[in-house]
Amino acid sequence: MTKKELWVVVERDGSEIEDVSLEILGKSAVIAKSSGYNVTGIVLGTPEDGVVRDVIRYGADRVILLKHERLNQYSNDLYVKVLFDLISSELPAALLVGATYYGRDLAGRLAARLRTGLTANAINIKMDEKGLLVFGVPAYGGKIMAEIVCENARPQMSTVRPGTFSKVFDQGKKGEIVEVVPEISKVQDRVKVIDRKINKSKDLTKSEKTIVGGNGVGGDFSLVWKLAELTHSDVGVTRPLADKGIVPRELQVGTTGYSLKSKVALILGVSGSEHFTSGIRDCVTVISIDIDKESEIFNHSDYCVVGDAAEIIPAVIKKLEGKI
Ligand SMILES: Cc1cc2nc3c(=O)[nH]c(=O)nc-3n(C[C@H](O)[C@H](O)[C@H](O)COP(=O)(O)OP(=O)(O)OC[C@H]3O[C@@H](n4cnc5c(N)ncnc54)[C@H](O)[C@@H]3O)c2cc1C
């Protein structure tokens, strides 16, 4: 018999908790409040006290701290082992994980070991009248919202898209802290970490002004960077440009990239496929430039400019630099 518990795996880098973990805690707390469930944050490693306390302040009723030095850095082998053991003995109703690189890596293998289902990249979570979690996932390029439930297997698992839910902070919130020392002395970590480099690329979900370049901008992306610098904007790209390595994959916008919430988004040479437009639908004002007046992107734009980006971008740059 599973317990009325919503578990959230808390991802952290040292003392910094990933925003998505805090967002899931906030959403879980809202669901728990109306359904009589408890929220438990699962923290791994040996973090500072403030991390554990923050997990409670951001929504957990309880924290289970899986305390071991070897868990301070993510390891698929170790994390799957300790979480599998804990879940098998505690039987929570649900387990939620941020859809980050590590979260996706962890959730897939953990779900397979637990022989349960896994919803990927949920952007909505609610509980139905039977007490089942209903995970909302955009399908067919965002045309429909698929609702996924895991009726029989437990825990109900999902990864959750970063930037989807709001954080809720309550400075005075109290909760229980349970320390568990996992038995991992004999577990071999098959991945050896030789070096670690933090990718400091911008989180585009927080970008107020974004310029997105697509295939129509061509191979020379330097003018887009220049325009972004002059207008204090962030830069995003469509998938083909990330595929070609013109701009890092981390800056991709769309179904498999960021969902922008910018006040202004300038879209350059982008055809407007559904996989892309799902990433700009929450922007306040969308301005597009495309050479083709029939381009689909214009159906998703507030201002439409028909023209050659290779002529318009340099002209705008010159204007901003006061050269014309
Ligand atoms: C499962 C799946 C997931 C995907 N996820 C994503 C995703 O997250 N993000 C994403 O972007 N794509 C994604 N795609 C790919 C997506 O379907 C499109 O292929 C992609 O968005 C097209 O990129 P684009 O608009 O830059 O290029 P194109 O489709 O080639 O469009 C280029 C546009 O530029 C215009 N143009 C050409 N020359 C000029 C010029 N000189 N000046 C101005 N305009 C010009 C053209 O008229 C055209 O409208 C996904 C696809 C699949 C199958």
Q: How is the largest sheet built, in terms of strand order?
A: 7-11-6-1-4-5-12
Q: What is the count of distinct domains?
A: 2
Radius of gyration: 22 Å
Helix count, per DSSP?
A: 8
CATH superfamily of the largest domain: HUPs
CATH fold-level name of the largest domain: Rossmann fold
CATH architecture of the largest domain: 3-Layer(aba) Sandwich
Name of the top-level CATH class of the largest domain:
Alpha Beta
Which blocks of ≥5 consecutive residues have pLDDT under 50? none
* Global structural class: alpha/beta
% residues in beta strands = 25-35%
Write the element-wise H/E pattern from the N-terminal end onward.
EEEHEHEHEHEEEEEEEHEHEHEEH
Assembly type: single chain
| Distinct small molecules bound, one entry per kind | flavin-adenine dinucleotide
Query: What is the mean pLDDT?
Result: 94
Report the end-to-end length measured between terminal Cα atoms. 73 Å
Number of strands: 17
Shape, principal axes of CA atoms: elongated
Major β-sheet annotation: 7 strands, parallel
Report helical residue fraction.
Answer: 25-40%
What does this structure look like?
- The structure is a single chain.
- The chain has 324 residues and is of the alpha/beta class.
- It folds into 2 domains: 178 residues, HUPs (Rossmann fold, 3-Layer(aba) Sandwich); 117 residues, TPP-binding domain (Rossmann fold, 3-Layer(aba) Sandwich).
- Helices cover 26% and strands 26% of the residues.
- Strands 7-11-6-1-4-5-12 form a 7-stranded parallel β-sheet, with helices on both faces. A 5-stranded parallel β-sheet has the order 14-13-15-16-17. It has a 3-stranded antiparallel β-sheet with strand order 8-9-10.
- Strand 9 and strand 10 form a beta hairpin.
- It is elongated.
- The protein starts with a strand and ends with a helix.
- The model has no long low-confidence stretch (mean pLDDT 94).
- The chain binds flavin-adenine dinucleotide.
- Flavin-adenine dinucleotide (FAD) binds next to helix 6, helix 7, strand 16 and helix 8.
